[in-house]
Amino acid sequence: QVQLVESGGGLVQAGGSLTLSCAASGRIFSNDKMGWYRQAPGKERELVARVTSGGIADYARFVEGRFTISRNNAKNTVSLQMDSLKPEDTAVYYCNVKSSWGQGTQVTVSS
Hints:
Layout: E1 3-7, E2 10-13, E3 18-25, E4 34-39, E5 46-51, E6 57-59, E7 67-72, E8 77-82, E9 91-97, E10 100-101, E11 105-110
Parallel strand pairs: 2-11
Antiparallel strand pairs: 1-3, 3-8, 4-5, 4-9, 5-6, 7-8, 9-10, 9-11
């Protein structure tokens, strides 16, 4: 079982930036992807980005080059740098490894 703790959410104006961080404890293997998902009110949870231990990342289409995911294998952490934020990015963001989820962190982007 992996435990995940997120931090870094908050309120930001459109066009601003936020960095989300996630610290994982427990057994994480080199072939486990670490990722970020989000869920807006009334919508399903969706993938934002995920990254392999080798640093290969894939992003949802709506990211459009605005976000960067990074991973520190030695510290078992994953971060999401979000730039040029839009009001439609408002959601609860969740860290994910295998079947484990963090508690979520709220990101609110005002127009």
